[in-house]
Amino acid sequence: MSLKMRILALIGLFLLLMTVAGGAVMVANARDAVRAEMASALELGRALGLAVTERGTLAGGPGMLNGLGLRHLRFVEGDDAAGPETESGRAPDWFTALIAVEPQELRLTGTLRVVAEPGDEIAEVWEDMSDLAAAVLAVGVLLLAAAFLAVGRALAPLSRLEAGVKRLREGDYRFAFDSGGVPELRRLGTGIAALADGLAAAEQENRRVGQRIVAAQDSERREIARDIHDELGAALFAIKVDAGRLLRLAEGRADGEEAAERARKILDTAAEVHQLSRRILVRLRPALLDQLPLSEALTELVGDWMRRKPDVAWTLSFEPPGAAADLDGCEEVLRLTLYRLVQESLVNALRHAVPSAVAVSLRIDADRVEVAVTDDGPGLAPGLPVGDDPHRAGFGISGMTERVQALGGCLSIGPAEGGGTRVSARLPRPAHNSATDRLERMA
Hints:
By secondary structure, the protein is α+β, with helices and mostly antiparallel strands. It has helices at 3-53, 62-66, 93-99, 119-169, 183-251, 257-284, 287-291, 294-308, 323-328, 332-352, 397-406, 435-442, and strands at residues 73-77, 104-107, 112-116, 313-319, 357-364, 368-375, 410-415, 421-428. The strands form two sheets. It has a five-stranded mixed beta sheet. The protein is rod-shaped.
């Protein structure tokens, strides 16, 4: 039950208790009043009966006295029963029983008796209490209606407070609250607003730290890739040159068969290490991003998979029109993250599913970038690990999640509409200089 209904139920309970208590007091007072009225009427009947009988024989009998129209009184001759009360204006039996006042009787001189009957008095009490109950009911209904409006207006700021807290949970820290003039709610709103400011500052700081970490990682990877290319590549090339020279020398001699065989093995090993170094270089630092804008690098990435898997329908789209140029102008950390997301999502789509169609879409707005990779494969199978080993070389799902969170974004993996799997990420788009530029200025 809502707080509003609880307050109204409490008010209704108080009104009910007050009505019951007031009714009990009125019934007790009515009982005493009816008894006093009966005693007074009986005394009046006694005096009237004695005054009449003192003059002699009562002409017309008790009927003459009853014809006087005295309320509550009835005169009876001899041992005749008093007879029932008139039915007109009688109160309900349960109310008569609640008043619990029985008829009172007094014997006069001779065989004349006077009976005081409470029926008329109880009927009057019932009529008064009925009118009062109707008035109380009307007032109670009006009071509840007024309380409904007043409580609703007083609790209206709580709905706005709830909406503000919901926005805080969704990451919107712009907290504005109108307390409606309630001091307690104003203090609560002020505290939550201060908390929202603290959360916003903490998130900005975490985002800055995350960007600096990602930028540092990318810089380190760039250095490692350069070292591998310059040092390891040169060493492998020297091995290939020496092994080729050795092979040519061995081929010119009759006893050079073993030397030629060893030279061939050296060449094969050098070729394998060269291929390995190229794969490591691609994983550490995609060369396409150093040579092409992001939109063209993604087009080349999808085109490479299109050539490898011609039986799959590949789609790459940028929204809105002109988004490709905006993507190319994003900071380096964001561009690299977007490229890695698409790269790893395509690998996972082909590794864990047999899709017939794969769609890549990117949307850029003023303050955020959204990327989604959708396939029409069988979807996520039960028991399939939700991510690769974070310690292995590469950029698995866990690595994607960490990198996206470090930039202040969110990553979701789930079923796609119509079947298959959808990997989507939403990343904030900084409005100022890149994290790399900030690092350079700090240095």
